[in-house]
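Review this fold:
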Amino acid sequence: MIKKSIIFLFLLFSGSVFSQHVMEGNIHNLGKTRLYLMTINGERSKVADSVLSDSLGRIRLLISANTLPGLYRLSWSKNGYINLILNGEDISFETDARQPEDSLKIKVSAENHIMQYFSGIVRINQSKLEFLMPVVDYYPVKDEFYKLAVNELESIQKAQIVTLDSLAVKYPASFAVRIEKSMQPPYLSGSLSRTARLEYLKQHYWDKVDFNDTALLRSNLFVDKVIAFLAIYHDNRLNQKQLEAEFIKAVTIALGAASVNQDTYKFMLDYLVGGFDKYHFDDVITYIAENFQDPFSCEDAARKSALQKKLDNFKKLAIGKPAPGIEVPDQKGVNVKLPDIQAEFTLLIFWSSECPHCTEMMPKLKSLYDNQNPRKLQVMAVSLDTIRNAWTSYIRKEKLNWINVSDLRGFEGKAEDEYNVYATPTMYLLDRDKKIISKPITWRELEQSLRENKIINQ
């Protein structure tokens, strides 16, 4: 019995050792440095492991068999990293820290050989297609060279498809092939006009994407696809309102295509909301908030997802809507209620004494505020500081004589939650009835909004 137990433990231990895989690398011009192996989920990353290189930049890292297949990043500095696929195999590579991606050589790893090989083909073909498409668009149709250009444009695409299909047959379990198949753009007939080509791309862009392959969320695939898709709708000749109308069309198609899988749909919804919010596309954000929701959201408010709360707040924070009636204590601990402020206009600004953009803006805002004639604008400045002295010292130093309030809870305060504050400064310009007039991001946008509402004349 004892012998059997010893044998079992030996086999168990041996299995755990041999189930591991090894990542070995030689990074020239790196030296002794701590490197981090990070998961990739779109634009988000998380440290999964780390390893210390020797003085020659060599590393050896054991990868558990339980490591989920996906695209990972081996990083040693902000701009110093390489992306590698992990999928149950040993990896050996060589690169140079000064140009890590360009000098990367895969010695062992079928997955990374495939990714590097096919990505190289795509880059070359993309350059050729970008050269050929203007020729096809503008060259006389009856000219012999036009026919040659059309044939070449189509043959390049067909050859790429054949190459990818052959890789899929040879490596059916390859994560690299799954990424590349979903990244593959629609085949475009060379005879299509530029307008027809764009319309075809818009309608068929997502045809080859496997939204049910949720393992692809462990890569940058969906982020890259979304960015490229939105680029089809972008036109520098359009003003912001017109551009937002185009992006609304893109969002409808993209989220409609992704809706076949809840996990992928939520990922894309979250990414689009964050991206459009960051660039101040309010009409798009409002449209998303009114027409889409987190598929995992529960109607119980206490359990509602963070994403759904954000979407619900966006609906409430649309221009023309009443501003949420927050209540925040001032320096003396007396609660100030936003609805009680008596002013023709109110600027609600979320800021912090530790935010360089805020401290650059505050003196300009103070000058404008102090020189009003007649006084039309009141400012309610909600500080996201967490240290009372940092907040009050800055107020005294800059002589900010408007309404200063803070609950000293940083981004975790109730007011910050009500107004979807994720960065400082965040501003809302309100009218006498506390309805939202505008949501400027920069000082320049604030000045423009103040002029449009005749709060300032200069």
About this structure: The longest strand covers residues 44-52.
